[in-house]
Structure formats: C-alpha cells, structure tokens
Amino acid sequence: MPVDLPVRILRPSDQLDYDDSRSVVLPSAMTPIQDWNFITTEPRPLMSLAFRMGDSIAARFGVKAIGGLSGERRIQARAGETLDFFLVEHSAPDMLVLTVRDRRLDVVICLATSGRRLTITSSVVVHNAFGWVYMVLVAPIHRLILAADLRRLTNSLGQEAVRPGT
To answer: Distance (Å, rounded) from C-alpha 148 to C-alpha 154?
Structure first.
C-alpha cells in the first residue's frame, strides 16, 4: 500500500478552489529539483502555446505575463529564488514548494519525495471572477498536462504512473 507523503497546500482541502495530487513510483530515488528539471527541461509545444494564450488573455485584464517555462536546469533551488515564474517558498531534499500569487489567484505546487515515490500536488485559491474564468479553462488542461508529464517521466525511467491509494 502506498504511503501518503506530507505535502504543502495553501489551505485545508475543503477551503481550496482547486486541488490535484498525483504520484509516481520511480525506478530510483530522485530529488524534487531533479524531478522538476526532468519535467520542465523540454517544454512541449502545446504547453508553450497554452502559456502564450494565457498570457495574451491575462494581459487584457492587467495581469502580468508569466512567460512559460524556460527549460533551464537547476542543481538546487533556495527559498526566495525563482524557478521561471514560480517563487521558491521551501526547498529541502524531500520537498520543493513553488508559488505564484497575484490578484486573480494563489497557486502552490508541491513536489514531495520519499524514497522512489514522487507526489506532485497543486492547490489554488481564486480571488475574483477573472480567476474563476481562468481556472475553468486551466484546470482540465492542468490535469492533462501533469498526467502527461508524469507518464513521460515514468516511461523514460521505465515505470508506470500510479495515483495515491492505488
């Protein structure tokens, strides 16, 4: 039976507007920054297009463009630094917590590892109508992209993705 990893989220689950958590069991242990590098090093064209479209829409509402993922590899990440458009709020050998906070919503992405298990948890709190519209569009795409990223990670490393509790 899989072990539930401790993860960081914005608020208790029943107070979140979006909450998604997925796990994979890898053939060998990796650190959260290694997992981040693997997932983001080669941004897929569809993801890049989604970022450009989101930025274009957001700009009309005065929200700063995020620009997408640079693909830059990092050896480490320290609290207070940025990874692309994310602020690193916490970095430890077994957990990387990334945030984006703006006037439409707050987002926390937590990559947590224990041995060979990687869990990525996304939590969002929406602040206004634009945030709600944004999340209606982004939530299903986010789930698909994360599932595809984890499949790509596990396929590249020779394992199969699993969801918590399976």
So the answer is: 10
